[in-house]
Amino acid sequence: xANITRDLTLNDEGDDxxxxxxxxxxxxxYSGDVTGRxxxxxxxxxxxxxxxxxxxVTGMADKATQEAIYAADYRPLRLGCVGEDVRQxxxxxxxxxxxxxxxxGNYGTGTMAAVASFQLCNNLSADGVAGTRTYKKLxxxxxxxxxxxxxxxxxxxCLLYTSPSxxxxxx
Length: 171
Fold this sequence. Notes:
Layout: H1 15-26, H2 40-52, H3 63-71, H4 84-95, H5 109-121, H6 132-138, E1 146-147, E2 158-159
Parallel strand pairs: 1-2
């Protein structure tokens, strides 16, 4: 972990700010240049991180915030998130049969619905937010896959109800 020597806040400069920006970039919170200057974009990234990790939202990277940032392996994914971590989750959800949308790294309503279905089938709180418990289960070997059609042979998976499309109804 990084050597935390001071609280970091707006207009601070230094290698510790660069390290913070790099860590926030790795977690997909910060997309600006790593400049070593704590500007508005860094403050916004810190606030978003604090919000996601239930820390006091101050925009200042105090010791507790920095420790949490450097210890975090991933961020909770929710509606509006964009990044490579979202793309990887979409790929995994698709492999398990929950996601049929475009793998584009944008956490939209389709990704949220796929996460909620996955959570429901895997006995997790189905809120559509991919937090720590959802991540662990999603990437575990015992994650239950979606089964869209019933089979006559016993399977381990979760049967998803899909409403019939209008063309499936008899006239």
